Each structure stands twice: as C-alpha cells, then as structure tokens.
Task: structure prediction
Amino acid sequence: MLVNEEKLLQSGFSQSDIRKVKNNLESYGGTLGNAIQDLSRRFVIAVSVVICCIAIFIFLLFFSSSETVFSGGIALLCGIAVATFIQPPLLSYKSWRYMRRNRA
Result:
C-alpha cells in the first residue's frame, strides 16, 4: 500500500504524528506504509487484550468471591494499562482508522 504524507494529513494525522513516525523510521528503518500497518495491528491487539480483560472480569464477577474479584480486578486493570501504554494509543488508532478507510 502506497502511503504518503498528504494522505495521512487528510485522514487526521498531524505534522507532529508524522514526525514521530518518521523519527521511528530513521531509528529502525522501514517504510511509512509498513509503520502505519504495524501501528494499525498494534491497535487491534491492544483492543483485543482490553476486551479479553473485561470479559475475564465479568466472569470473575459472576463466579468468584469478593476478594478474588477485587484482586483480579486490580490485576486486569494493570494488564489493560500495559496493553494501552506499551504503544502510542492515539497514533495507533489513527493508523487503524487510516488503514480501514484506505484498504486496497
């Protein structure tokens, strides 16, 4: 997929967002298209982890004691925090939205 700065700016990326992606590309190599695809995948993975954690918490609410619900809730909240902050959430969401709208 051919990705250029103009298309990214039109789809909601700011100059600062593009600069962050380009700085990453200078450090680690690759193309702009690959970076956007990778960020998009990371968003999908993060959302999947959050949904799984919420499902496990609901399961705990129905089938566990209050102590287990409390400690499990704290653990799952930590898991959600790690899944969310291990990648740039806003940048990966914009990448996911861009990839969804511009499928080839």
Notes: The helical segments are 5-10, 15-28, 32-63, 66-85, 89-101. The chain has a mean pLDDT of 90. The CA atoms of residues 40 and 79 lie 20 Å apart.
